[in-house]
Write a structure and sequence with these properties.
Two copies of one chain form a homodimer.
Chain A: H1 16-35, E1 39-40, E2 46-48, H2 49-52, H3 58-63, E3 66-69, E4 72-76, H4 81-90, E5 99-108, E6 120-129, H5 138-153, E7 158-164, H6 165-174, H7 181-188, H8 191-194, H9 196-205, H10 210-220, H11 226-234, H12 241-259, E8 267-269, E9 280-289, E10 299-304, E11 318-324, H13 325-334, E12 349-353, H14 359-370, E13 375-377, H15 384-394, E14 398-402, H16 404-409, E15 412-416, E16 422-425, H17 427-441
Parallel strand pairs in A: 1-5, 7-8, 12-13, 12-14
Antiparallel strand pairs in A: 2-4, 3-4, 5-6, 6-11, 7-9, 9-10, 10-11, 14-15, 15-16
Helix pairs in contact in A: 1-5, 5-12, 6-12, 9-10, 11-12
Chain lengths: ~450, ~450
Amino acid sequence: MKIQPRTLSGFVELLPKQQILMEKIMQTLRETYSLYGFTPLDTPAIEASEVLLAKGGGETEKQIYRFTKGDSDLSLRFDLTVPLAKYVALHYSELAFPFKRYQIGKAYRGERAQRGRFREFYQADIDIIGDGKLDISNEAEVPAIIYQVFNRLGLKKFQVQVNNRKVLNGFYQMLGLSEQAGDIMRTVDKLDKIGAEKVKELLIEQGVSEDKAGEILAFIGIKGSNEEVLGALDGYQGKNELFDLGLDELKTVVKYLSAFGVPQENFAVNLTIARGLDYYTGTVYETFMVEHPEIGSICSGGRYDNLAEYYTDKLLPGVGISIGVSRLFYVLNEQGMLNEDMNTAPADVLLLPMVEDLSPAVELATRFRNAGVRVQLYGEQRKFKAKMNYADKIGVPYVVFLGEDEVRDGVVACKDMKSGEQTKLGFDETLQRVRDGLAKKNEGRVILG
Amino acid sequence: MKIQPRTLSGFVELLPKQQILMEKIMQTLRETYSLYGFTPLDTPAIEASEVLLAKGGGETEKQIYRFTKGDSDLSLRFDLTVPLAKYVALHYSELAFPFKRYQIGKAYRGERAQRGRFREFYQADIDIIGDGKLDISNEAEVPAIIYQVFNRLGLKKFQVQVNNRKVLNGFYQMLGLSEQAGDIMRTVDKLDKIGAEKVKELLIEQGVSEDKAGEILAFIGIKGSNEEVLGALDGYQGKNELFDLGLDELKTVVKYLSAFGVPQENFAVNLTIARGLDYYTGTVYETFMVEHPEIGSICSGGRYDNLAEYYTDKLLPGVGISIGVSRLFYVLNEQGMLNEDMNTAPADVLLLPMVEDLSPAVELATRFRNAGVRVQLYGEQRKFKAKMNYADKIGVPYVVFLGEDEVRDGVVACKDMKSGEQTKLGFDETLQRVRDGLAKKNEGRVILG
């Protein structure tokens, strides 16, 4: 009796060619985060439930993979932020602040499986944690790094949308609607879906006066260039301290974003961005693909005042942002935006030894590998045609044949599998040819457009 | 009420400096496996219990993290081999054979926590899977890759010990002891710990005749150079078909290991290596640190005839080997064998802007980053002394100061934090100085000796 092999619904398992594209994305993330001086972290996927769920409540708790092993009540992490909070509280005295870390790892949520929503998914997070305080410039650096990440990946048509929670909360304070602010923001969030008229109706149903509903719609209706939006916000100044503070922060972040080299088309102030209710306290971000707003935010985050309040009395303000890598990859694939012209073969060169003694083949492979060329040595005793079929199937760019003639003459027979052109040259010339071809193949980015 | 932050016993969580050394190891593993034409795979950490435990029984099953979520009976993977078997059976028609893959990922076993044994641990596996058959040369290539991995990591005093299950099974067939072979091998495995006399006693207690016990001890006592051991095995030839086949394989693997460039001191035939009972069918490997045999094998594997027999009728022979990365890292750390002279700071350069406008600092950081230098921009408003304390604490090799003078004169003030030497040079000269210094710092390997 055989067991039917299967992979669980909602769990990602890529075929080799796609996995190589995913690896290229991961490598770009690691490299870029490192270039900005973020240190890599790796925390366990399992934590004590008591620790992981210290905050408790909410939608998330229902989705958690929680179980017991022996006497231990355990849970799989549902994001990388709570483990970071635990890490910083636990190792506080051994860390230097501001503590800049990146983490790329799997998180788990038992959501209802649906297209592009996964139960096991990669997140790629960066956070900057201060000890007691943290400069506002960090709130611009974080989205600037995200801009660089997408830039290096090849994604062009995206926009980081920025808002400030103090601006929002201050505005609702002005209207005397602080208590209802949460409900109002949830309604306002539907603006793009249901339109302004319907939002106004709903607000009035929620008990907001018609005047105030009008003011809210006027406020969230502020559009235009960043300069125009900030200019319009100036009109609200001087009425509420929190609002003024937030506007000042927002202006500083916008100024710094330019200083950090983010082009105007890649970031915009958007007053409808709110991001949850109780966690973020300053700048908030969401990132959209300009031509695919229906996909929702592909990278979100913001400023928080107290990372680890459930674990420590220390005040640890921070700012962080997270790319949902598994979901992004799924979307890019669906949209045909993954660059399949890249070399996704397991090797750059497939080496076919045509003589029994493997030593010269190993020697040749070693020379290529020492030059950074990935070589797969084909050791199977099969017909020539089967070997070439294999080369085709893995999509390897070059096949090198090593027969008695080549060994004797000290030359390398090398076939470009795309053009079909075959050369018989010395090692150095062959290496140059292979390198040139690979450089051309890899000059593109993983993401198209 | 605060929750005490803690990390579960048996789970690894490294501090930043150690994590960077771990990342260097991971990167070397990825690069080396890729250079040999292995494709990366990433399978879920959670599988349906029915699938993961298809084989059933044994010690492993008790250690498994198994739980239900909704109607699903789920388990965390306990190794990377069973998920590979599932993957190959499930995606058979979309793969090219021989299928060469590497996977570096976490696995889970609820073992009793003890020093160097972890409940969540990284394994780094390579396997080569054939469709129907697989050439013997693969059984030499796999340990040759492991030799390269350790070589690149800097580990020198290690030995891959090789044996062949057919030789062992054939030998016990000769003695008419096939039935007891399992028990005998388990006793023989204690040779190093309890000595030959005691092993002989135990064998006799197990019902082996004194003569045969003597023959067993003579057999496993065969020592010497690979040539000497193979020469001694020749004396047993011609009596058992399986033995003769195994000896032939062993000789071929030894010959190929030399051809694959593995020096004699790094591999040895060891007739006491057996590796479990029912899975491996040909060559088997264990790897020891020559000066720390007490640590046990740091990398093991072997040849198997039927990877996915629980899932498919297809015959899928393979050969694979696995490095227990978390355990190896723990041992290296315990032994003081991790190279702490390497740059383990989050950045190569800490950039301290001494003027309010951040733009020139960002511009300078960008030039360094485009040249591959990792730059952390320090944006906090703090006293100079606090900034330098931070630089010391993260152990950054260079600090760059950017004040009004430097901006005006277009120069870079750069301090080597180790020598204390400070220069004021143009960008290109500063970059060269930093690069030279980093190259020197990174010329060592992660593992010492």
